[in-house]
Amino acid sequence: MAFRAVHAEWGTVFSHLPDLGCGQAWEAVWKVRPPAPITCAECRHPMHAKTSYSGLKFFAHAPHAPDCEIARQGESEAHHLLKLELASAARDAGGHAELEVRAADGSWRADVLATDPGGTWRMALEAQLSPITAADITARTERMREDGVTSCWFSDRPRPPWLGTVPSLRLATTDDGVLVAEGLVKFAQGGWAAAPQVPVADFLRWVFTGKVVPHAPRQHLLYPQRQLAQVWTAPQYTAAEDTYLVEEEKRRRIDAERQARRQAAAAKKRAEIDARNAQSRARALSRATAIEEKVRQLHRRAGSKLHSKLMERLDVQRAVEHLARKHDIDATAGWSWSEAHWAGGVPLINREDWEPVAVLDPVPGQVSGDGFLLLAGMLLLFPTREWEQRFVRNTRRRRKMPIEGYRTEHMEAPGGEKAEPAESRAAAPRCRRAGAPCACPDPQLLVTISRRQYPAEPSSQMGPSAALYTASCSICGGPYDKPWRRRTA
User: For 165, which of 134, 317, 342, 474 could close a Cys bridge (C-beta 3.0–4.6 Å)?
Assistant: First the structure.
């Protein structure tokens, strides 16, 4: 099926033109006897003028045709109708249109070749209804471009997968005729939006006059269709995209600089806070070290059973073993364990320089003042992971959490098994939750008087302070409801 043939006397004839392009009627070649002397424009084999059931006029090869490209195509009627539509639109747009034009060297053949009457440009209008790969359609477009022929591919299929791979459009047939439905866009509000649907003739008129050009968009398409690698648009819209991208790059640069300034200011502020925190923690550690040294020297002269009993506690022993095994520190329990800045925990002291290196199991409710500053910069040890998590959770709830968090660890037995808490601390969670009285066999008492904590000890009768204040056990955290008195050095 072809629309062009060669008449022996009239030259090239076109079946879709009313006068065959040479001033002759269709009846002059259709059903005449003898047959009209028309041949194929490519293989020169005889052809016959025919009409389809729908009234489409075309030329067909006579039997025994050679291996001719036109004969092998087997194009559908829909494909030929679309080619006719494109040819008619090209003529209405002011161009000259020929069907089935082949390159001089046979490297390509255009369905419709539209040319400028003045010969300044040539453009192939390709009707593509059958499946084709992106690689094939790109190669065919490139071959025509090498000969100075631009191209545009058309399809009226709902979603041609190759659309946008090359300069192309999707068409739609409506009551107003064949319109451009997809591929023609305009730039608005920072993105590409679909342009109003226009007749194919209007689109080709804009293309022929340079008012619409192919373009590879750098911004996303905003309309609810697929993203296309190539579209058709007006030059002023490509310039608008360029201007927008320049302004967007400027905005991004300004935002990046503003963000960098904010980050620098935040880093400077954080560095100042870290410096102040380091100084305050160093002062708290220095005070705690001085107090520990004073208490240690005092107890060394007087002797202390409390320190010996403290070292007999299973959790203290495991803490000392943990520091030796994991941190290579030879530690012992601190003598100033009853001081408020340890927050109810047991200080662990390095035997080499007698400086505090860790605190064993501090009580969240007692973390305040110097205790908060001191614990924020020290290693905190806990018998189990659960106790470690409970401490972090409770201090966060009480808003006693450092900016960078606490440095915590839970102890493990030498064989890798989780260590159990000491027997003297086993009942602590229940006491803390329910507020039950202290039931420790060897309670370590503290009493808060005028916001300061003082050591206390069990007594056979109530001391003067016991009538006004309530002592608590630093081991389990529970209140001590038996007789007690303030302990003197």
Answer: 134
Q: Taking the mean position of all CA atoms in its chain, how far away is CA 84?
A: 48
Distance CA 261, CA 267 (A): 10
Write the CA distances from 246 to 192, 241, 320, integer angstroms.
16, 9, 65
Round the CA-based radius of gyration of the chain to a whole number and report it.
47
Query: Under a CB-based contact definition with an 8 Å cutoff, are residues 62 and 33 in contact?
Result: no
Euclidean distance between CA atoms 234 and 211, whole angstroms: 6
Angle at CA of residue 115, ends 114 and 120, nearest 5°: 150
What is the chain's length? 489
Structure tokens given for 275: 């410096």
Single-letter code of the amino acid located at 276: R
User: Residues 382-433: pLDDT tens digits?
Assistant: 999 999 999 999 998 888 889 888 999 998 755 544 554 544 343 343 344 3
pLDDT at 302 over 70: no
DSSP, collapsed to helix, strand or coil, labels residue 472 as strand
Least Cα distance to 480 among 470, 467, 488, 469 occurs for: 470
Rounded to 5 degrees, φ, ψ at 129 are -110, -25
Q: How far apart, in whole angstroms, are the C-alpha atoms of residue 179 and residue 156?
A: 10
Residue pair 39/47 in contact by the 8 Å Cβ criterion: yes
Strand partners, 120: none
Tens of pLDDT along 202-218? 999 999 999 999 999 99
According to DSSP H, which parts of 223-359 are helical? 235-302, 305-312, 314-327
- Domain extents for the chain? 4-185+192-213, 279-426, 428-489
Taking CA atoms, 330 is separated from 84, 165, 321, 349, 418, in Å, by 97, 73, 9, 8, 22
For residue 345, what are the CA distances in angstroms to 194, 333, 412, 481?
71, 11, 19, 21
* Euclidean distance between CA atoms 40 and 59, whole angstroms: 9
The burial of 89, by beta-carbon neighbours within 10 Å (0-12 exposed, 13-18 middle, 19 or more buried), is given as: buried
Beta bridge partners of 62: none
Q: How far apart are CA 105 and CA 107, in angstroms?
A: 6
Give me the amino acid identity at 100: E
Global pTM reads 0.56
User: CA 295, CA 451: separation in Å to the nearest integer?
Assistant: 21
Phi and psi, residue 281, nearest 5° = -70, -40
Q: For residue 225, what are the CA distances in angstroms to 73, 153, 200?
A: 32, 18, 20
Rounded Cα–Cα distance for residues 443 and 459 (Å): 12
Residue 474 in tokens: 């630093």
Residues 233 and 187 sit within 8 Å (Cβ to Cβ)? yes
CB atoms within 10 A of CB 352: 10
Tell me the C-alpha distance between 331 and 383, whole Å. 17
